[in-house]
Amino acid sequence: MEYKGSSAYDQHRFFEQYIARRYREESPNEKIKKPVLFELLDDVTDYEVLDLGCGDAFLGLELLKRHCRSYTGVDGSKNMCERASQHLKDRRGRIVHSTMEEFDFPPFTYDLVVSQLALHYIEDFSMLAKKIYKTLKVNGQFVFSVQHPLLTASFESLTASGKRNNWIVDNYFHSGKRVEPWIGEHVVKYHRTMEEYFAILKQSGFIIHDIREATPQKDHFKDIEEYERRMRIPLFLLFSCRKPS
Ligand SMILES: C[S@@+](CC[C@H](N)C(=O)[O-])C[C@H]1O[C@@H](n2cnc3c(N)ncnc32)[C@H](O)[C@@H]1O
């Protein structure tokens, strides 16, 4: 069975294994992506923040600690929303159980829209980018990470353990649906080239300020072999853009 959007995260076993992986020692999310995300983000003091595909809203906790005025997380998974609501209990955060596609984006509301590793689940990124543009205040920031297109191009080189020892990059310019064998399930993702991400952001009206591939930093790793493995191929692609005044 193929799982689209959030649906895999509502399978109990998948959800628990995903969370365990997400926070494991040497997790690339923590060691590689997170430092770059925080380099890209503005000072969020007094910001109204929207997090698309917020997962368990751990980012919300961090942004609230950094004094954002409000945090709204949107996620299509019931499991994720429950976990996120527990994390935000008694804090200035709110979680909306909705797909990003169905979420009712209020115009000119947010200073920051952020999304971590969720936009490659979206088939029509162009439509969503336009909604994000509208929901931002003037000069508002849009920062997001996706699975790097070198990885989503082809999943042929995945081994039974889910680990790749070599990477096949194939059909790169054939963007569209891919099915990734991941955590024992078949998860639907949408491959887009770097050029497409860039063009969609530009067409939606954004000024693109930065694009990052999250080069691993040796001093963030305890395990040198893990660091060397992560130096072989990029895992993440991040963009920072702004709605111009
Ligand atoms: C890889 S997880 C990342 C979660 C979180 N952003 C993080 O970095 O920890 C992807 C998240 O996107 C959510 N998601 C996937 N497709 C979605 C959609 N169409 N609308 C809303 N959420 C979606 C999933 O439910 C899941 O929580």
Automatic annotation (TrEMBL):
Keywords: Methyltransferase, Transferase. It comes from the Bacteria. This is Methyltransferase domain-containing protein. InterPro entries: Methyltransf_11 (IPR013216), SAM-dependent_MTases_sf (IPR029063). The keyword Methyltransferase applies. GO terms for biological process: methylation. Gene3D superfamilies: Vaccinia Virus protein VP39 (3.40.50.150). Pfam families: Methyltransf_11. It comes from Cytobacillus citreus. GO terms for molecular function: methyltransferase activity. Residues 50-144 form the Methyltransferase type domain.
